[in-house]
Design a protein that fits this description.
10 strands; globular; binds zinc ion; 287 residues; disordered C terminus; alpha+beta; 5-stranded antiparallel sheet
Length: 287
């Protein structure tokens, strides 16, 4: 099927692309006690691979997969497997993160029209897509306002989880969730998978809470540390955790009263899984 590639805009045969990279689902499946993944929207239907659809041409898919492989081997597997806590990175990390931000933003925009965004905020979405595209195609040195943030979720602090739902820690360690969110003043892309939280601003009224987790576009050191975060991100995580919890009890998503959330998948049976290792930086909660 010939369609327009979302990245290079050329009319070409499109490949079936993953919105959240496939290696993440593969790892989740491999480390889950039941060996399969179920979608939160329909807890009875196992979902092995997450959302995938014709999205990119072969050339653009190849560009993305090069960065994915670097991230998977240099950061994702060593961190998930508790083999390292500090990671040197270079430009490929921002490229990888920007490629995921781009996929999630375009996918959710096409899927929902972002009809919950104000017209003013929606104008920033179009701009963000252009910035991410230019950067991913190598036309600009950095993604401008679409700075990439990455947090390593670790550091066990159960006593600090005062108001959070019971399963906050299992959400922190195991859930995969993508969303595009807006408040009256700020909008951003939210990508949570296993022990990683990845954020990308669309438009911010202030940088407060958005600074410490920034990834340098050229090189840097990523490590487990305390981060400042805006309250609405914490609230988003708590909501995600409550959906994660209620879906495990097979309560319908609608009953949770949350419409815009799109939990991609989770694990139903967490007995003896990595759940005990699911942790969070203390400051995330206390903020
Ligand atoms: Zn392309």
């Amino acid at each position: 099927m010939i369609q327009q590639c979302r990245l290079c805009d050329k009319e070409k045969p499109l490949e079936i692309s993953h919105i959240v990279p496939k290696f993440i689902f593969r790892h989740l499946k491999k480390t889950s006690p039941t060996g399969y993944i179920r979608a939160t929207e329909n807890p009875n239907r196992p979902v092995q691979d997450g959302i995938k659809l014709p999205f990119l041409c072969g050339d653009c898919e190849d560009i993305f997969s090069k960065w994915e492989t670097l991230f998977a081997n240099k950061i994702f597997y060593p961190y998930q497997n508790d083999e390292a806590q500090e990671f040197k990175y270079e430009e490929w990390l921002t490229k990888y993160l920007a490629s995921v931000s781009f996929r999630v933003l375009v996918y959710v925009y096409e899927d929902t029209g972002l009809d919950y965004f104000s017209p003013e905020m929606l104008a920033y979405v179009d701009k963000a897509i252009i910035n991410l595209k230019s950067y991913l195609l190598g036309k600009t040195e950095h993604p401008k306002e679409q700075r990439q943030l990455l947090l390593l979720l670790d550091f066990l602090a159960p006593s600090s989880i005062k108001d959070g739902p019971e399963n906050f820690n299992s959400y922190m360690g195991r859930a995969i969730e993508i969303d595009v969110l807006t408040t009256d003043y700020d909008s951003f892309i939210y990508v949570k998978y296993l022990k990683f939280l990845h954020l990308c601003p669309i438009s911010l009224s202030t940088n407060r809470g958005w600074r410490t987790a920034r990834i340098n576009p050229k090189r840097g050191l990523l490590k487990v540390q305390n981060h400042e975060l805006p309250d609405y991100i914490m609230n988003k995580m708590k909501k995600g955790a409550s959906i994660f919890t209620s879906s495990q009890d097979k309560i319908s998503l609608k009953q949770s009263g949350i419409i815009q959330s799109r939990l991609e998948s989770n694990i139903q049976n967490l007995v003896d899984s990595e759940i005990g290792k699911a942790v969070i930086a203390e400051k995330l909660i206390k903020k």
